[in-house]
Automatic annotation (TrEMBL):
GO terms for cellular component: cytoplasm. HAMAP family: Trp_tRNA_synth_A (MF_00140_A). It is found in: Cytoplasm. This is Tryptophan--tRNA ligase. The keyword Phosphoprotein does not apply. It comes from Haloarcula japonica (strain ATCC 49778 / DSM 6131 / JCM 7785 / NBRC 101032 / NCIMB 13157 / TR-1). It comes from the Archaea. InterPro entries: aa-tRNA-synth_Ic, Rossmann-like_a/b/a_fold, Trp-tRNA-ligase, Tryptophan-tRNA-ligase_arc. PANTHER family: TRYPTOPHAN--TRNA LIGASE, TRYPTOPHANYL-TRNA SYNTHETASE. The keyword ATP-binding applies.
């Protein structure tokens, strides 16, 4: 039994989630500019809170909440830094990110970077998965090392799928990924259960996380399978796997339901590091709020120090006591520390903290620091390095001494597609989604019978225009059918809201395009089918045919 068996159990990452229509964005509205339409899914009723649950039914009523509540950043703010952004980026389908800048920078400078995502083989791949396939492929085409993995351990432990079912679905995911343009000679495909290096790394990462933490993040409890927990550390290892050879910026394209995994992975990546690098102002330890106050006190030294070249901690304490409006307890604690340090000079420095270093590595770091330095039990202060140089040095010493030197992984988040029947897109409601394996004619029919954002009569539509941003059919145009052609997507949008486009014709056009897409896609899948055994991935698990439950 898993903890999540109360949830529908055949959902894949980007199903069963609500979202508003795909808002068209002006191509020039890049740097935080105004999209033509608001991008919040405010019409989803009943949910005023966003929950992100990788195995449950997350509800996303309002994407803006993800920024405020979880600290996901708006993609628009980095868009202008991305060379030749993908249409999903330009159209706001990719709406959020964590720390994407290092990836964009690597792309611009032709430096190494990687993209990785994983797929739980729980059903047929559908047009929601296509978004992630496209994102991986695009990063590969931009010069990144691309990885796609089959999350078979997770499917078995968290969803209870049998190995036979997993094998069949895994093959279908891979065929679609390849048909859409993934280059297997340049990229890496693997399944979790077959990747020894991932399993070893998962074990190491597991030593940095405990049960209370998984409980807090994922709501695990005493009933949770141990294998389910193992699938979490396995995913952590997947996410860091591209950095095993060398640390590099790595982006994980996913739906926002996977964000809890990203937060944990970023934490674990930092916890594995040998050394932390921070700013400091005196021999004592300070947290980041205290450091801000110390920086202010240092910058104001002319005002209070007898010798401004040599301000004393005690003098800074007096000044802070009198002058600084700040959170009272932070101020109190820093003033106490400064008082205690008394005559010690207040002097900026870069501090290396010993987190996970071996004695040998700690000694090696001391050796490697040029210029003035001061060595303590658990840290080293250095006075002639700037922050970036210190980071670089810490990583180099770590790598030279057998550490990983991980960079925190980045992520990008795409919107969930609305179901064709309105509401959720769910693999348990065939009419709500289009499988990449659907017969092209069925694809045509599903589009033809989709819900629209149209008005009740043609007259009303001509007068008021359609509601394109509440229309699942418009979403199909924006997310898929227009491909790279922004002008076409915009034309559909403008004609719709301007009342020139009526739903009958609009759906007919979309249905034909969908039929065509499925035909082409399946033709390419068939070509790859013959070449599957050339791939470096085993599609037959030789495991006992049990299910996880
Ligand atoms: N948990 C993901 C899902 O629900 C699958 C997955 C496994 C994954 N490992 C990953 C996603 C690494 C991104 C990166 O589908
Ligand atoms: Fe949707 Fe097209 Fe109708 Fe507009 S015209 S509401 S885009 S189906």
């Amino acid at each position: 039994m898993t903890t999540d068996d109360s949830h529908h159990d055949d959902a894949s990452p980007d199903e069963d989630r609500r979202q508003s229509g795909g808002a068209w964005r002006e191509p020039d509205a890049r740097s935080g500019g105004n999209p033509v339409l608001p991008d919040g899914g405010t019409e989803a009723e009943g949910a005023d809170e966003a929950t992100l649950d990788p195995w449950g039914s997350s509800t996303i009523a309002d994407y803006r909440k993800l920024f405020e509540q979880f600290g996901i950043e708006e993609f628009d703010e980095v868009l202008s830094e991305v060379p030749n952004p993908h249409y999903l980026m330009r159209r706001g389908v990719i709406f959020g990110h964590r720390d994407y800048r290092p990836v964009a920078e690597a792309m611009r400078n032709d430096d190494p970077f990687a993209a990785l995502s994983g797929f739980m083989p729980t059903g047929d791949p559908h047009i929601g998965h296509k978004l992630v396939f496209d994102e991986i492929i695009w990063h590969q085409q931009q010069g990144g090392d691309a990885y796609a993995l089959i999350a078979d351990l997770e499917a078995h432990s968290a969803r209870g799928l049998s190995w036979d079912e997993i094998d069949e679905h895994a093959t279908n995911y891979l065929l679609s990924l390849l048909a859409l343009g993934f280059d297997p000679d340049e990229g890496t495909l693997y399944r979790q259960s077959d990747n020894r290096a991932v399993q070893d790394l998962a074990f190491e990462l597991g030593a940095e996380a405990n049960f209370s933490e998984l409980q807090a993040i994922y709501d695990f409890d005493g009933e949770t399978d141990v294998s389910h927990m193992q699938s979490v550390v396995t995913q952590m290892a997947d996410i860091l796997y591209p950095q095993l050879d060398e640390p590099k910026p790595t982006v994980i394209p996913v739906g926002p339901d996977q964000d809890p995994h990203m937060r944990l992975a970023r934490d674990l990546a930092a916890r594995m590091r040998f050394f932390g690098v921070t700013e400091a102002f005196a021999s004592f330890e300070a947290d980041s709020v205290e450091r801000t106050l110390l920086r202010q006190a240092y910058d104001a030294r002319e005002e209070y120090a007898e010798d401004a070249d040599r301000p004393r901690c005690g003098e800074a304490a007096d000044w802070l006591r009198d002058h600084q409006p700040a959170p009272a307890d932070a101020r109190q604690s820093v003033v106490a520390k400064l008082d205690e340090a008394g005559k010690e000079p207040l002097r900026p420095r870069i501090r290396f903290l010993d987190r996970n270093a071996t004695d040998v590595a700690f000694e090696a770091l001391i050796e490697a620091i040029d210029g003035e330095k001061r060595v303590y039990d658990e840290h080293i202060d250095t006075f002639d390095l700037d922050h970036a140089e210190a980071e670089e040095l810490a990583r180099q010493v770590e790598l030279d001494n057998g550490g990983y030197g991980f960079q925190p992984p980045s992520s990008i988040y795409h919107r969930f597609m609305t179901g064709l029947t309105g509401g959720k897109m769910s693999s348990s409601i065939p009419a709500s989604h289009i499988s990449l394996l659907d017969d092209p004619e069925d694809g045509y029919d599903k589009v033809k019978s989709a819900t629209t954002g149209g008005r009740s009569t043609a007259e009303e539509q001509r007068e008021k225009g359609g509601k394109a941003d509440e229309c699942p059919v418009y979403e199909l145009y924006a997310y898929l059918l227009s491909g790279d052609d922004d002008e076409f997507a915009k034309e559909v949008y403008d004609e719709c809201v301007g009342g020139e486009r009526l739903c009958g014709g609009c759906k007919e056009q979309a249905a034909e395009l969908m039929e065509q897409f499925l035909e082409d896609h399946q033709e390419k899948r068939a070509e790859w089918e013959d070449k599957l055994d050339e791939l470096d991935i085993d599609l037959d698990s030789d495991r006992a045919p049990t299910s996880a439950d």
